[in-house]
Amino acid sequence: MIAAFVFIAVVLFENLFVSPLKASVKQLESDIAKREEIISGLESQQKGYDSISADLERSKKEYDSTVGLFPEKWDDALMLNFIEDSIGDGLIKKSLSFQGLKDLKNYSVGTYNVTVHGHLADILDLLNDFEKAKYYNTVSSINVPDYIFEEEEEVDVQFMINFYVISE
Q1: Whole domain around residue 61: which residue ranges?
Q2: How far apart are CA 20 and CA 26, in angstroms?
Q3: Is 26 exposed, middle or buried (0-12, 13-18, 19+ CB in 10 A)?
Q4: Using CA of residue 62, residue 64, residue 70, residue 74, what is the dihedral sign?
Q5: Percent helix, percent strand, percent coil in the chain, to nearest 5
Q6: Is 63 in the same domain as 87?
Q7: What is the pLDDT of residue 98?
Q8: pLDDT score of 148
Q9: Do 28 and 83 fall into the same domain?
Q10: CATH number for the domain that contains residue 115
């Protein structure tokens, strides 16, 4: 009889206390696993955000250094002075004309037609000066005579140079 009473007490204890606690423990273990999975996903996202942030910072530095090459407003005197200084004493300027300022979405382009007379080496030095200029520019066309026989020969060369400025 005592054995039956102990058995019933153990069964009741198991059913009323232990089984619900086991179910709660299993539920908690499941919740912990789900939250660890969420944390792992968030850590992975954080690494992605850190990488994107580093890329953004690099891009910002590159942008800032590039924007420094563009004047903030069009300054015809500045551009003309640069062209004149670049031509220097080794070449003769035959013509220099401004073709106008074209406004685009984020920047404007001012175009000059320039014709110079001189030795080919001096003309190549001029183009090299344009390439190393403080302000961003492109030589969009260049016309060199087909009849150059010697490097020391003097020729007329016409080119078109574009200067870029940030649009207001």
Answers
A1: 1-67
A2: 10
A3: exposed
A4: positive
A5: 55, 25, 20
A6: no
A7: 93
A8: 64
A9: no
A10: 3.30.70.60
Starting at the earlier edge strand, list the strands of the sheet with 137-143: 92-103, 107-119, 154-166, 137-143
Q: How many CB atoms lie within 10 A of CB 154?
A: 13
Residue 20, helix vs strand vs coil: helix
Q: Are 162 and 140 in contact (CB under 8 A)?
A: yes
> In sequence order, what E strands does the chain have?
92-103, 107-119, 137-143, 154-166
Per the listing, tokens 């078109």 go with 160
Residues 114 and 92 in one domain: yes
Question: Which of the four pLDDT bands, split at 50, 70 and 90, describes residue 12?
Answer: low
pLDDT at residue 21 tops 90: no
User: By C-alpha distance, which of 105, 119, 110 is closest to 148?
Assistant: 119
Does the pTM surpass 0.85? The reply is no
Q: How many domains does the chain have?
A: 2
Q: CA 127 to CA 57: how far, in whole Å?
A: 34
Smallest Cα–Cα separation from 163: which of 87, 47, 72? Answer: 72
Question: What's the confidence (pLDDT) of residue 67?
Answer: 67
